[in-house]
Amino acid sequence: MASRINLVDSLAGMSACYHHPSQKSVANCKECGKGLCRDCYDSYGAGMGAGKALCFDCTEEMVKQNSAEIEWLKKQVKKERLWMIIGAIVGFFVGAGGGPAGMFFGLFIGASLGTIFNGFMEYGWLVGGVMIVISPIMSIVRFIKRINQIKQADEILESDARILQEMRDYFAYTLTMEKNAGFDLATLASQGSELYGNIYANAVMSKGESAAQAELRQGAVQIAANGEIIRSFDRRIAQRAA
Ligand SMILES: [Zn+2]
Ligand SMILES: [Zn+2]
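Above: query sequence and zinc ion SMILES. Below: predicted holo structure tokens.
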């Protein structure tokens, strides 16, 4: 008898699903090694490509990294805009000595000082010199690019948060269904019941189990892809992540 309990204990310790302790694990998280059951693996863990599973905690980590990178980007954009305004004001007054045309050019060159500075720092004197001439256009281009990036970044934050919530709801769904074997889903998801408002339960009811699973399976891939998008915004983000 004692040996049987030991066997069960060691099985649970070695190969139980991290989220469903009553289930045996079929794969381990490629980041932290936590066990994932067949259901978890099929539903969201397999999202990282053939045989590569990722647990919920590591997926959540990925979202945290995305958020941190977006926060950095937003701070950077704020700084850039501040320097544009300061540069434009200084340029306007410096250029004032040259009359209305001087004011006009001073304003634009001043607002573009950040771009010119970047040109010198990144590409050297020759390119930096050329940039003085084209910097006003480059600054406008970057300004517009940043507006789009911030918009995309906000969409990513929303998408990441929704995916995480759907994963959490998936755990709640599976545990509730296991606990309430025999009850039908519509009852469990009705107002006031455990699964009311559960995103995954609603997906199962409207699209069916396999479609809901397929959608969930894309979640980790989507979060990873979102990270790639953020890092493509500014090469300094990729350098920080490396
Ligand atoms: Zn993990
Ligand atoms: Zn599981």
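Residues 1-13 have pLDDT under 50 and may be disordered.
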